[in-house]
Amino acid sequence: xxxxxxxxxxxxxxxxxxxxxxxxxxxxxxxxxxxxxxxxxxxxxxxxxxxxxxxxxxxxxxxxxxxxxxxxxxxxxxxxxxxxxxxxxxxxxxxxxxxxxxxxxxxxxxxxxxxxxxxxxxxxxxxxxxxxxxxxxxxxxxxxxxxxxxxxxxxxxxxxxxxxxxxxxxxxxxxxxxxxxxxxxxxxxxxxxxxxxxxxxxxxxxxxxxxxxxxxxxxxxxxxxxxxxxxxxxxxxxxxxxxxxxxxxxxxxxxxxxxxxxxxxxxxxxxxxxxxxxxxxxxxxxxxxxxxxxxxxxxxxxxxxxxxxxxxx
Length: 313
What we know:
Layout: E1 2-4, H1 10-27, H2 38-49, E2 55-61, E3 64-71, E4 82-85, E5 90-92, H3 97-111, E6 116-122, H4 126-133, E7 138-146, E8 157-158, H5 164-178, H6 192-202, E9 208-215, E10 218-227, E11 243-251, H7 260-274, E12 279-285, H8 289-297, E13 301-310
Parallel strand pairs: 4-6, 11-12
Antiparallel strand pairs: 1-2, 2-3, 3-5, 6-13, 7-12, 7-13, 8-9, 9-10, 10-11
Helix pairs in contact: 1-2, 5-6
């Protein structure tokens, strides 16, 4: 039997999420063990269901819940009229059940006008990913993780106030690159004046670590890292304990392919090790050919994949 998700379903859904997380950690032990506790997992399910506009579905067999799905819209013009299934928003005993759950939940989502659907799925659960593919989803984005690592020699250095004009220009490079083929991101390119103002006030912010790499005496790339708590994308089961977050990296086109990106990555990994973090987390668009290859090449292992479907086209 399939029916809408209700508040009384939270505890049973938490038990399913805890079991899913146990399987996930068997493949990726760097994730936090906290969500293997059904009560802790249930609080994440509760938070997902209590998000504004949230709705979903459950599957029941012989009086026992065997799957659930919860999604909620995000107020952002970039994502379209959307629904997001976050990292705590789904679990099932059998992957095939998720196709039925989506059919039930998506009926309401589409009726309410939410036609852009996004879902985070454990990267190690190939059967569940396959089930989502078979209801029209494709692989859009990836979360990755790896241990920190100290380096004997670093090509990159910490950014200073003198670098602010170039840092602001580099902030435009990632959205510019992702607006091109094959990514075609709908994200807007910020104004240079806005980025200058932000860097002038934040270049010495101790909550962030900004690095630059030079070639022939000129800055050609930058990267920014912080503690994972600064990321709104890495929440719930997708947020490891005591993790650093590689939040941004960009290299000017003329310096790509020269090792500048690798130098920035090495600097972030070294900073994370020196700062006492247990892991480093980042994420990338799969359609961004440069970043999807660079971060895996630097040793980041997939933890979650974001799948996407747009209804009606």
